Amino acid sequence: MVKEVRVSHILVGSEDKANMILNKIKTGYSFEKLAQEESKCPSRKRGGDLGWFTRGKMVREFENFSFTLRKGDIGIVKSPFGYHIIKKVDEK
Fold first, then answer.
1. Are 19 and 76 in contact (CB under 8 A)?
2. Which among 22, 13, 31, 3 is positioned nearest to 91, based on CA atoms?
3. How far apart (Å, rounded) are the C-alpha atoms in residues 38 and 14?
4. Where does 1-92 have alpha helices with state H?
5. Which among 62, 16, 68 has a CA at the least distance from the CA of 41?
6. End-to-end CA distance of the chain
7. CA 56 to chain centre
8. Are 36 and 23 in contact (CB under 8 A)?
9. Which residues, other chains included, contact 26 with Cβ-Cβ below 8 Å and sequence gap of 6+?
10. Residue 15, pLDDT score
11. In contact, 9 and 86? CB cutoff 8 Å
12. pLDDT tens digits for 16-44?
């Protein structure tokens, strides 16, 4: 069972913008560079890296999605803060 995950994310205000960014990533754009340019989260300074966290540390939607992604996968989830493009970096 996964106890801790490491993810990076890009936080934006609309589903359309999230899908546009995800499409750019899928065509080869750098996740980290797009995070620096597009994210509304202070983590953008670190290329979206949120580091390691366990359950109970993030808002429910974000946390549940982060734990269900497979290592290396990228997807979009909505939370009360907006739309997150999440990349699962690692798990343990």
1. yes
2. 3
3. 12
4. 15-26, 31-38, 60-68
5. 62
6. 8
7. 17
8. no
9. 74
10. 98
11. yes
12. 999 999 999 999 999 999 999 999 999 99
What distance in Å separates the CA atoms of residue 67 and residue 3, rounded to the nearest whole number?
9
For 43, which DSSP code? G
Cα 84 to Cα 9: distance, rounded to the nearest angstrom: 6
CB neighbourhood size of 14 (10 A): 10
Q: Which residues of 55-77 are buried (b: 16+ CB within 10 A; e: fewer)?
A: eeebeeebbebbbebeeeebbbb
Kindly state the tokens that stand for 44.
């953008």
| pLDDT at residue 1, rounded to an integer | 87
Pairing mode, if any, of strands 4-12 and 82-91? antiparallel
Distance CA 31, CA 56 (A): 26
